[in-house]
Specification:
The protein is of the alpha+beta class and about 80 residues long. Helix content is about 30%, strand content about 30%. It is globular and about 30 Å long.
């Protein structure tokens, strides 16, 4: 479902969340399996505090930007093996 292109993984899950899906476990598994140095860009329809907390608990620093109403972008880089 997600892929890494040039060390960057863009995950736009806004439509999936709008359908009632909660792909947090899928995202976390993908991040765990990704190589060190991967940049993650996750697009959400809301701020995603539970996902932010999970990413931070893995040791990732997360930058949150509100691009538009109902469009938030989380950015993080995997610096170490988790």
């Amino acid at each position: 479902m997600f892929e890494i292109v040039d060390k960057k993984a863009v995950m736009d899950i806004r439509e999936r969340v709008a359908k009632g899906e909660h792909p947090r476990r899928e995202i976390l598994d993908f991040i765990n399996a990704a190589p060190v140095g991967t940049i993650f860009e996750i697009h959400l329809p809301h701020r995603g505090e539970p996902l932010i907390a999970n990413l931070q608990s893995l040791g990732l620093n997360v930058i949150v930007n509100e691009l538009d109403p109902m469009h938030f972008r989380l950015m993080a880089v995997k610096l170490d093996e988790l």
